[in-house]
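Re: [help] complex structure
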Amino acid sequence: MTWRTILAAALALVAVGPDRAAQTPPGPPSGGSSTAGTFAPVKDARKRPITAGGFVDGAPIVFEDRTAGSGLETFRHRSGSPEKTSILDVPSGGVGLIDFDNDGWLDIYLVNGSTRAALQGTEPAPRAALFRNNHNLTFTDVTDRAGVANRRWGFGVAAGDFDNDGWTDLYVTNHGPNRLYRNNHDGTFTDVAERMGVTAGGWSTCASFGDYDGDGRLDLFVPGYVDMDPERSPTSATPCLYRGEPVMCGPRGLRGAPDRLFHNEGDRFVDVTARAGVRDSAGYYGFATAWIDVDDDGHLDLLVVNDSAPNYFYRNTGKGTFEEIGFPSGFSVNEDGREQAGMGLALGDYDNDGRVDAYITNFSDDSNTLRRNLGGAAFADMTGALGLRTPTLPFLGWGTGFLDYDNDGWLDLFVANGHVYPQVDRFDWGMTWAQRPLLFHNRGGTRFDEVPAATGSGLAAVLPARGAAFGDLDNDGRIDIVINNHDQRPTLLRNVAPAGHWISIAVTQSAGGPRDAIGAVVTVEAGAQRLRRDVVSGGSYCSQSDLRAHFGLGRTTTIDRIIVRWPDGAREAFGVSGIDRIVALTKGRGERLKP
Amino acid sequence: MRAIVILLLFVRGATALAAAAAQDPSALASFRAGVAAQQRGELERAAEAYRQAIEAEPRYAEAHANLGAVLARLGQYDQAVLSCERALLINPQLNAARLNLGLAHYRAGALAAAVETFKAAYAADSSLLQIRQLLGLVLVETGKDAEAIPHLEASAQADPDEPAVLYALGRAYARRGDRRADAVAERLAHTREGLPLWHQLRGLALQQENRHDQALAAFEAASALNAALPRLFVNIGVSRLALGDRAGARQAFETALARSERDAAAHVYLAWLDEQDDRLTDARRHAERAVQLEGDVSESRGLLGRILLKEGSTAAAVSHLERAVLADTENASWRFLLGQAHQRLGNAAAAAREFAEARRLKELEVLRERKAKP
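Output below.
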């Protein structure tokens, strides 16, 4: 053996430690978003990318696309350039299902983006739209009369009765000053953001209301995304690449915009971000947020989903402050210890164990993540165990919700999808700009199976989706969905699935807490079944879903009792005389239970 | 006074003659028989002869050193290390035994120990070219490119046609973004047997630029000239992985293992792929082998710890994650997983410490990326 061959062999004897260190998957964030690496294209039998294919002829139709003729087709979302040269162009916008006129029927608010030409005044600014429900699955555009057109670069909407007058108000987030539309009780709104001190400024995304200190008034959390000038596209010292192709930069590498917590003091809101301990010191890129009592201690905690950075879990200390426990709780990163490009957030008790679980949508080349609530403010990443890892890998998820679409008593999962890079359509990467939604059927809390996208059905609609909101638009006891599509018309998905029995519960309180009872926990007891639903502002992606608590009951025809834990911690039991109906429960009219 | 000539593992193989004086004539005879057997390539017989020499004269340092060299070639690295260490205990001046020890460490995958041993050998005798060559190579292996470059440059000057040295030098320059990498690559292309390494070097540079299609083509060109090139299939696997071809990547890593079961990188990648596919038992097997081969490399330790954590073997996970963190104190993910392991074991204070550190390190990552902006 010569010295030369020994030297050459020496190179082969051991691993290439440092080389491998740089290459061990997953690599660094690509294009500014955190992913799990690169995956081979998944295609259907007709060689279509699975994100825009995989349709199943003859499969049962679960959702029908009922946009055409609904009135919603008159709305068109617009945001930036078609080429999406800046990160500002891509994340708009949300959708809200709210009953603004208190007629018992959900109305629809669609957020719009804007364009640079509109900012410069050379073209009319796109407007948001409010559609009143005509009670027959058609809607009338009442935006102008209502005065909620926004005409700023909008991103999200949250609903809450911040002034406790019994009428739903709207908070609309923008790049630039946000709007707080106070409901005037006559079909009109007045923007009181400036007067109330909640314009925030900068780039706000997915806000949410919640009474964190139990003073009976809804407070407001407003996450910030990126700190940038809308007139200038952020650039990088090195090209921003996705799979080797140049794409718009961010959010990684860009400066984050601050998050804000506003305390409602009745006549105004006061910024208590630092005092309360929810200052986004790292300047992460905030998207979906929600107030929810994760540890069931009677105080609303705050979840913040960050894009390509660790998520925040602010545990409410009960003393007006919060402790950030994202890492100890397992909420910040996935089970591999990796931060993901979080977009949307679904909350619900998928396994009916009485605790609220969390599902977060992420970037393509990564799976969405389902975290099971273990109690004690701890989560376990159950994505793989529940069969949810592989199916979502090619998709880029946004709006999401737990919904019991077939009313079998188990919360299913819906995800609205769409890419941020138009370039993906030019390459054989198995992903597309417009993508079909995903629906997963919950098999008794132990597994989720994808519901086939029946050809021609709403699940086969290929959409550049962003926000999605969930609610019973036609009051037929089945949850419908509205999706706000980027640079397109929205989509109305009517639930036509064969479904079990149901009950929908609207909770309100007349005094001692937020009128709309945001933060309440409603539990239905029927035989051995105990089903929990939370009344939540925000969630999904920059969207507001029906505040009524909807329960699928399957074959159950009798409810033993309904227990409401009100936002102040008081518990009451209610009896109900029937099912398959919407019932209203008011605080103080039930049987008081020990806390 | 003994006449000391050590049969080094690395000195022109079996051609170097050894003759070492011994107090006991039978020891000397056995030693000579061992050398003769080693020169004929009869390694087992040589080992036996050296053992007889040692039995006759237990403090026969040269016999210990040569036994170490033979055992290393037989793949018995732990025993080889022990033999070389005994030789040095008996005679600390025996620098050739130190080199054998370094090479045994190197082959055993104990890179840190190899570096220290070669450094000690270099300190004892800075004139021997082979020491600088090996020290340069192993420094590149451990990512200490800046430290490696002077040794490799000196080696390349002394022996301009040595492809292994040029390859390592080109790699070190390329990783540092130093344009001298191109000139070194040119020299490599013109050496005898250097062309396949040049293709591989080019492939690695393309890989670094995320041009994986072109990198694969370069690796294929290398393979056409010399399919036995070290690490070729791991590199092919890495590019296939980056292109999303997980099946192809798996095949490449398995080929790498078929060629050398001791390829820790291939084991790590296969462990990762198996883990992603929820095949935790297979994943653990590969990760354990990687750890066995390369010791305290952060990735293999961390990966094994993570797999054990997923399997519910929390106590076992802790020790690996702790060593992963020791090897790479800046890795937020290992810190988080170590925190989780401590948490599950009820070690609240340790868990809190690791979670806080994970959080701090993740923040730093984001801030660093921002600072890199123009």
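Residues 332 and 363 of chain B are 9 Å apart (CA to CA).
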